[in-house]
Amino acid sequence: MSFSINDAFSFFQLSCGSWKSQRSTHHLLHRQAEPGTSFILVKALELTDDRLRKVAEMHEYETSKLIGGCSVQWSGSMAWDQEGESHKGESVFGLVPSNINGREGFLLRDRGYAETAPVAGKFRMDEYDTLILETGYDTMNTIERFWFSGPDLRLRSSVVEGLSNTASFCVETRYK
């Protein structure tokens, strides 16, 4: 990558826009991979956005601790989908850094990835500017890694452990 990312807030600003995500999910129990496609829209939210205030209050954080946030909408399909099954949704999240450089902290969401309940995960960025998000749910845990291969190409891997054990890899291409 020919650019560096200073902090998690900058990472999410770079993520704003429209994306097409090609996914391969490996279901460990079934020993099979399932392909899928999603369309994702990421929009930055102003700190004055009422949705950010609500997500902070939901997780009992002071809104003054937030440094920013986004709304994410997605619509997708997976190869094994049953008739009527929908992979459509929307989530709002806010960033609360826990250190001065903003490279680690908490990601507060009104809706989780592995479960739809509100959830707060921990984020950190490594020396390669990879954003690592660890989230504990009631019935499972996830570790997601996001990184840019260029300004319009983002890669993502995730591992879900618990009731459903999966490993996924996504290639996400920005729409211009």
Write up this protein.
- There is one protein chain.
- It contains two helices and ten strands, in the order H-E-E-H-E-E-E-E-E-E-E-E.
- The two termini are 19 Å apart.
- It has a single domain (8-175), classed as Calycin beta-barrel core domain (Lipocalin, Beta Barrel).
- The mean pLDDT is 92.
- It is globular.
- The protein has helices at 8-15, 50-58, and strands at 17-27, 32-45, 68-78, 87-97, 104-109, 119-125, 131-136, 140-150, 153-162, 166-175.
- It is 10% helix and 55% strand.
- A ten-stranded antiparallel β-barrel has the order 1-2-3-4-5-6-7-8-9-10.
- With 176 residues, the protein is mainly beta.
Question: Any descriptors?
Answer:
176 residues; mainly beta; Lipocalin; ten-stranded antiparallel barrel; 2 helices; 10 strands; EC 4.-.-.-; lyase activity; CpcS/CpeS; plastid
